[in-house]
Amino acid sequence: LFDVRVSPVRGAGGKRQVLLVFRDVSEVQASESMRRDFVANVSHELKTPLTAVSGFIETLEGPARNDAPARDRFLSMMGQEVRRMDRLVSDLLSLSRLEGQSRRRPTTQVDLARVLRDVAATLTLGAETEGVTINVDAEAEATVPGDRDQLTQVFANLLENAIKYGAQPGTVTLHLSPVERDPVIKGPAWRVGVSDEGAGIAPEHIPRLTERFYRVDTGRSREQGGTGLGLAIVKHIVNRHRGRLKIDSEVGRGTEVVVTLPAA
Ligand code: ADP
């Protein structure tokens, strides 16, 4: 896409000439349209729970005013919607903070095995209520230069997805293993696989999963409390750590999300 300016000029000897200036604006246009899409998505995602909450309020003020059991039910649904908005805003803040951060790689030494065990411990109770068992296969001590909080967020997001979209009841596994030389990272690395036994993801969706708000099944994601931002955040953090992210999935068998991070 080009922006063209036409201006009449006087050339040498007073000859009339026309100056044409072509400016390539494709990139400007593309980023402008991405920004518009993003604002539209955010507005829509916030509007949906807001509409629900205002509907509940109307019912509570009217028909359900004196109906105690209905009131309890509506209050609990309102709580759910408000928590969804809260998660959405937290995820948006995380993304915007990550984008504003320097591209420099964090350098604190982080023990990945410890991060995995901590994440699993935090999510065990919630997983159990869904009938999901978490396996952590991380014997070795694995040090990587990184940001502990951000790496914790990566594996918490991936584990939450494995629990949400995996088989219920079922097992999800966190598997840590050393890589002698990763061909892309071009050096020693640590590989963490987060796998589930769920329905899997059709291949055409896989390349788009790290886009903001991209979901395979919006209804299912919403029902599970998802914001559609989890994998976008994961991708950002992994890139900042100079690592790589790969999603292997087979429909009907399950999914393994693999994060590979350069070793210390
Ligand atoms: P969400 O908040 O919707 O879970 P994510 O960015 O974390 O957003 O994931 C994007 C989409 O990728 C999800 O809505 C879901 O459709 C799909 N997805 C992610 N992880 C898995 C998985 N382990 N198994 C199947 N589908 C998954």
From TrEMBL:
<keyword id="KW-0808">Transferase</keyword>
<dbReference type="GO" id="GO:0005524">
    <property type="term" value="F:ATP binding"/>
</dbReference>
<keyword id="KW-0067">ATP-binding</keyword>
<keyword id="KW-0547">Nucleotide-binding</keyword>
<dbReference type="GO" id="GO:0005886">
    <property type="term" value="C:plasma membrane"/>
</dbReference>
<feature type="domain" description="Histidine kinase">
    <location>
        <begin position="41"/>
        <end position="264"/>
    </location>
</feature>
<keyword id="KW-0472">Membrane</keyword>
<keyword id="KW-0902">Two-component regulatory system</keyword>
<dbReference type="GO" id="GO:0004721">
    <property type="term" value="F:phosphoprotein phosphatase activity"/>
</dbReference>
<dbReference type="GO" id="GO:0016036">
    <property type="term" value="P:cellular response to phosphate starvation"/>
</dbReference>
<keyword id="KW-1003">Cell membrane</keyword>
<dbReference type="GO" id="GO:0000155">
    <property type="term" value="F:phosphorelay sensor kinase activity"/>
</dbReference>
<protein>
    <recommendedName>
        <fullName>histidine kinase</fullName>
        <ecNumber>2.7.13.3</ecNumber>
    </recommendedName>
</protein>
<keyword id="KW-0418">Kinase</keyword>
<keyword id="KW-0597">Phosphoprotein</keyword>
